[in-house]
Design brief:
By secondary structure, this protein is α/β, with parallel strands linked by helices. It has one domain (about 10-260): Aldolase class I (TIM Barrel). Helix content is about 40%, strand content about 10%. The protein contains 14 helices and 8 strands. It has an 8-stranded parallel beta barrel, surrounded by 5 helices. Helix 9 links the parallel strand 7 (about 200-205) and strand 8 (about 220-225). It starts with 9 loop residues before the first helix and ends with a helix.
C-alpha cells in the first residue's frame, strides 16, 4: 500500500489504522447539459467531500454510473478525480464485470497509479456458484497491482457472496483486503469479524444499516448519502466508535449519541433511493449547487413530487 501523506483523522486512527476506516463516499459522476463529463463539477464536489472530513472516495462505483461510461470517459473521470483530490485522501476505483477473463485483462490495462485499491462487484446475471465466485475473485486479485475490496450487493447482482466464501477469500491472499457488505443483513458482520483475519476490512455498503453495522464490528461505510451530507455521516461514525470508551476526547464527547431508529438522515436515505440511485442523490447535489442532476438512460431524473420532498428535507437541515 502507498506511503502517501494522506490527511489522517486522529480520532479514527486511534481505533483503526486502516486508511479505509471511517466514511468512504460512493461518488457520483457529474454530467453537464450536453451529457458530457462535467469537469468543473468534479472539482467542486471533490472539495466539498475533502473539507467535510471523509476518509476516502470510491470512483466509478454503481453510484458513479460506471456502466454507462465509455472507456475514454472512464479515463477522463479517473484522471479528473485524481487531479481534483491531489493525493489529499485515498481513492478507490470501481472496476467490475461478469466476464472474469475480460475483467482481468481490463484491470491489467488500466492505469491504477492514482488509486489505493480497486473495488469489484460479485459477478452479476450469470449467477455463479460459490466456488465460481471464489475463483473469480482469486483471478481478479492476481490481476490487480493494487489491493482488492470485494463487493457483495445481492439486491443488484441477484447473487450473494456467502460468509464462508468471504472468509475463504480473506485467508487466500493479503491482496484481498476487505469486503463492502451490502446485503442489509447486519448479523453477518459479527461472524465475519470473528473469522476473517484481523486486518481484513468489513465495510458497510448500506446507508440504512450503517449504525448497526458499525456497532457489530464494521470498520466504516461506503455511503451514497455522504455525497450530500458528509459531515453528518462522519460525525455519526466517530460517535459510534467512541461510544463505549471510558476516555472520550472532548471533541467526540460533544457529538450526539445516535440510534438507528431516529438517526437524523433516515428520511433522507429513503428519499434518495425511492426512485433509484443515483437519480435521487444527484438531485440532492443539484439542490446544494454541487452538480447537475442529469443521469443517463436507462436511469431517468426523479419525479417532481420527489424533488419537492428532497428539497424540503435539505432546506430544513
Amino acid at each position: 500500500m502507498s506511503t502517501k501523506a494522506y490527511r489522517i483523522n486522529p480520532f479514527i486512527t486511534q481505533k483503526n489504522k486502516s486508511i479505509f476506516a471511517g466514511v468512504g463516499v460512493a461518488v457520483v459522476t457529474p454530467f453537464n447539459d450536453q451529457d458530457e463529463i462535467d469537469i468543473e463539477a468534479i472539482y467542486k464536489l471533490s472539495d466539498h467531500l475533502f473539507f467535510s472530513g471523509v476518509s476516502y472516495v470510491v470512483v466509478q462505483g454503481t453510484t458513479g454510473e460506471s456502466s454507462v461510461l465509455s472507456y475514454k470517459e472512464k479515463e477522463e473521470v479517473n484522471s479528473t478525480f485524481i487531479s481534483a483530490f491531489k493525493d489529499r485522501i485515498p481513492l478507490v476505483l470501481g472496476i467490475s464485470s461478469n466476464n472474469t477473463s475480460y475483467l482481468c485483462d481490463l484491470i491489467s490495462k488500466t492505469d491504477l497509479s492514482g488509486f489505493e485499491a480497486i473495488m469489484s462487484v460479485c459477478p452479476y446475471y450469470n449467477k455463479p456458484s460459490q466456488d465460481g465466485i471464489f475463483q473469480h475473485f482469486v483471478k481478479v486479485s492476481e490481476a490487480s497491482s493494487v489491493p482488492l475490496i470485494i463487493y457483495n450487493v445481492p439486491g443488484r447482482t441477484s447473487c450473494d457472496i456467502n460468509n464462508h466464501t468471504i472468509i475463504k477469500l480473506s485467508k487466500f491472499s493479503n491482496n484481498i483486503i476487505g469486503v463492502k457488505e451490502a446485503s442489509g443483513n447486519v448479523s453477518r458482520i459479527l461472524e465475519l469479524r470473528k473469522k476473517t483475519r484481523k486486518d481484513f476490512l468489513i465495510i458497510s455498503g448500506d446507508d440504512f444499516t450503517m449504525i448497526d453495522a458499525v456497532r457489530n464490528g464494521a470498520d466504516g461505510i461506503i455511503s451514497v448519502a455522504a455525497n450530500a451530507f458528509p459531515s453528518i455521516m462522519q460525525e455519526a461514525y466517530l460517535s459510534l466508535i467512541w461510544e463505549n470508551d471510558n476516555d472520550i476526547p472532548d471533541e467526540i464527547n460533544k457529538l450526539q449519541k445516535i440510534e438507528s431508529s431516529n438517526f437524523i438522515l433516515n428520511d433522507f436515505f429513503n428519499l434518495i433511493f425511492e426512485e433509484g440511485n443515483p437519480s435521487g442523490i444527484k438531485f440532492a447535489l443539484k439542490y446544494l449547487n454541487l452538480c447537475n442532476d442529469k443521469v443517463r438512460l436507462p436511469l431517468t431524473e426523479i419525479s417532481k413530487n420527489l424533488k419537492n420532498k428532497i428539497s424540503v428535507f435539505i432546506k430544513n437541515k
